[in-house]
Amino acid sequence: MNSPLPRYQVLVVDDSPVYRKLIEHVLSVEPHYDPLYAQGGKEALRLYREHSPSIVITDWMMPDISGVELCRQIRADSSRPYTYTILMTANNASGNVVKGLQAGADDYLTKPFDDGEMLARIGVGRRIIELNRDVAAKSQKLEEAARTDPLTGLPNRRALEEWAGKQMQGATRHGFHFWVVIGDVDSFKTINDTFGHDAGDKVLQAFADLLREGTRSSDICGRLGGDEFLLVITHVNAEGIALTVNRIREKFAALSFSFGKSVKVTTSFGGVGFQSKGIHDFGALVRKADQMLYEAKRNGRNCVRMLPLDEAALNSL
Is the pTM of this model over 0.70? Predict the structure, then answer.
């Protein structure tokens, strides 16, 4: 099955209805283009902000905002995908052309224009836009990869810290519950030493799957490194967080791994939480959660230790 042709929205700006009609005729030759029309610069800016067109073809001289100023304002807006701009002018003096290009225009056409030349110049714009789309897509993939643990597909430490920092700002501003929980696999080194690192990877992936399944879309879970995972859970009281984490622990303990023989693996969790306004240190909360995890290990593993922090305890972190 052939993939659908990419579409390119083209904003045509000209106070002359004759030229708007001539450009409409040019654009109708190929099926790629979805045209929008504006009679002046102010209307063009409104349509640009509403639709973020791929290509803008604008006349230079208009009664409100000139084509040069329109190009300048489009180029100043870095919040949108790249827009290819073609400036039309009846005066092709080199000084005017330079002025237009310096204002941010990518190309120019002299009026009256040749239909074939206009179509060719729009085609150049289309190729530039496609290159920008490819670069943006690749950049997004690289950015996602930089925030993703390759073994489990969960967010990595960097992504966890970025997300949690923003979420904690909301918790400290509005006073809702905020929990930081660290979990790891009991005796993970023994699994690696006895059954090999492939077996250890399978255990980590299974643990990650259960964490992902047990975490709401409004919360986050990720891998800190090694066999340590972190969860940030909000809007849940102390009783609710204990039930949530114990449910994950029990489900994992019920799994059976086949490593030449049937093997059971357990996990331990430690966490801290607060419900108060004010500025708090996420790194300090992680360190305190790690202490609670150590306490769970010291108390026999395969258990959960959660500690609600009052104002005094928070201030002492």
Answer: no
